[in-house]
Write a structure and sequence with these properties.
Blueprint lengths: L1 H55 L17 H6 L1
């Protein structure tokens, strides 16, 4: 009788642990999906802004994205 109780208890504990694990995995997956939705929404917004900037500046001359601060100061002395 004692052995049967141990077996039943072990089965019950295993079932509970599996249920809890499934619940935690589902919660983690939902959380990750929510984060990815936020990241993709931010990417779409940034792309939209970049397209708007390109559209609004189309009649002007092309924007020069050269660095403001020289990366290598010695490059100026070599060019001069």
């Amino acid at each position: 009788m004692h052995r049967k109780m141990n077996i039943l208890l072990a089965g019950w504990l295993a079932s509970r642990i599996e249920t809890r694990t499934r619940r935690l995995r589902r919660a983690l997956r939902d959380h990750q999906r929510a984060e990815w939705r936020l990241i993709h929404a931010a990417d779409r917004g940034a792309l939209g802004l970049r397209l708007y900037i390109a559209w609004s500046c189309r009649e002007q001359e092309a924007t020069n994205y050269r660095t403001i601060v020289q990366l290598h100061p010695s490059a100026q002395t070599l060019a001069a």
